Amino acid sequence: MSFAPTNGKQEGPLKKYRSRLATLTRDWRTFMGGYDDTVVRASAFDMTQRYSKMNATISSHFLMDAFQMHYRPYDRLVPNPLGKNPWKDIIQEELSDQKYRELNEKTAKNPALAMLASQNFIDAVTGVAKKSQNMIPPDVQDQANRMQPQPQNNQQNNQNQPGQPGGQKPFNMSSFMNSLQLMQTGNYGNQAAASNIMGQMQAAVSGATSQSNQMGAVMSGFTHSGVPMRKLMDVDEMRSILSNYIVIALSNVLRKISVNDPGRSTSKPSPKRGIPIGVKTMRSFSEITDLVPMEYLNDQDLFSYRVAGRKAQVRERFSSMNRFMVYVDKSGSMGGYMKFMGDTAPKIAVACANALALAGYLRSHSGVLVLKLFDTEVQEPMTDVWDIMKTLASISADGGTNISRVLEDVVESGKDYRCIIVSDGIDSIDEDAAKLVKGMDVSSILIGTKNELLEKYTKVSQISEAGSGNIFLEV
């Protein structure tokens, strides 16, 4: 049986539904403009590939909306007044949340953080949607599928193809949102179920925002400290690493410690009681006698000369040791806590944060720092922050410490460096290995422990807490 084409004045029910849905689809976009931005489109494409591997079809306008709300400054977002739908309701609720605005301050104009926050947002929405599919009545689901402006045959045919885990039923974001839209209209009498799903989604999104805020704070702790973040990982791996307690502590410690040229005054020089300004700008200890005879330095009024002289000595020492090789114990006990600036932090977080801060300072002063982590073996030098974070996040409460192997490595590769060993659990050391470093520039920072051989053959600093100063410049 066939039907003659209509003259356009009369439409069947299905055509009306499709026409209505086409209008709604045009109105799904939440914001006015921004969809032609190259960064927005590229990021949406990257996310499309990720979700495709997860057996989920998420239209680009959902992904571009999610990215825009995190990448563009909040005060530059202009809502689209056309249409009303569940997706817009979710975003509008999020935009009114103070936690989101705090997050936007971190992610705006930062593609890496915006991508991370966007995927957390989408994951939260789709996580609830997938679990809620059984709450959608079959007739609603069927109607939503038939209302799709483009046939979904290709997706249905690919349902059990390789690459889709376990032959799971593909998730389609547009189909789900259309079903939710129909349930909200009341035509199917499912307003209560729709309200329940929306409440779950908004709660999940709020939780994702809190998580993104924490992850953003951790990442900004590195970037604000001048530590280069060279590569991005899979968002799930990032989520795991950035929520690790040692990595969080590493970022917090990195914010607080300082690495300044020792002895350099940060205040503007000013004469006091007739003392020349030149005393503040001395670059070497010998210059002090050019300013005042040494026999006058006992005078109380010239006390600042003695202070400046001490600073000049420290500065001279610092300028001669701009090549460091730092060995940090990564055995399980280093995940324990030590005192840090009136609080506590994992010992390895304090050690690595000091190393990263010093490395950043040395890079800008023609110096270098090589970081090597060790337990029973010495690892290869680590330069990428993500690699360091991944290693710290994998620390477990076991594993031993082999200082003898570290000393052997110092002899093999540390002759042109000032070498520093940081550990909290010293095992028995081979004295023959310890003798090999005698006469070399080797120091040991022992956290809450002692060792006679290290004290005999290296310069030892025993600490139980750390402050804002860099521990490697104090040994």
Map the helices and strands.
Layout: H1 13-26, H2 38-53, E1 56-57, H3 60-71, H4 86-95, H5 98-107, H6 111-132, H7 138-146, H8 153-157, E2 171-172, H9 173-185, H10 191-223, H11 235-242, H12 245-256, H13 288-291, H14 303-319, E3 323-329, E4 337-340, E5 343-346, H15 347-363, E6 368-374, H16 385-393, H17 403-413, E7 418-423, H18 431-435, E8 442-447, H19 452-457, E9 459-463, E10 465-466
Report what the structure shows.
This protein is of the alpha/beta class and 475 residues long. The protein has helices spanning 13-26, 38-53, 60-71, 86-95, 98-107, 111-132, 138-146, 153-157, 173-185, 191-223, 235-242, 245-256, 288-291, 303-319, 347-363, 385-393, 403-413, 431-435, 452-457; strands at residues 56-57, 171-172, 323-329, 337-340, 343-346, 368-374, 418-423, 442-447, 459-463, 465-466. Strands 6-3-7-8-9 form a 5-stranded parallel beta sheet. A 3-stranded mixed beta sheet has the order 5-4-10. Helix 6 runs antiparallel to helix 10 (191-223) and helix 12 (245-256) crosses helix 15. The N and C termini lie far apart (93 Å).
Structural features:
19 helices, 3 domains, alpha/beta, five-stranded parallel beta sheet, 475 residues, Rossmann fold, disordered N terminus, 49% helix
Strand content: 5-15%
N-to-C span: 93 Å
- Strands in their spatial order, largest beta sheet: 6-3-7-8-9
Number of strands: 10
Taken in chain order, the helices and strands follow as HHEHHHHHHEHHHHHHEEEHEHHEHEHEE
- Residues in helix, %: 40-55%
Largest sheet: 5 strands, parallel
Structural domains: how many: 3
Average per-residue pLDDT, rounded, comes to: 77
Please report the number of helical segments.
19
How many whole angstroms does the radius of gyration measure? 31 Å
Estimated structural class: alpha/beta
Tell me the overall shape: elongated
Which consecutive residue ranges, at least 5 long each, have pLDDT under 50?
A: 1-8, 151-167, 261-297, 299-303, 311-319
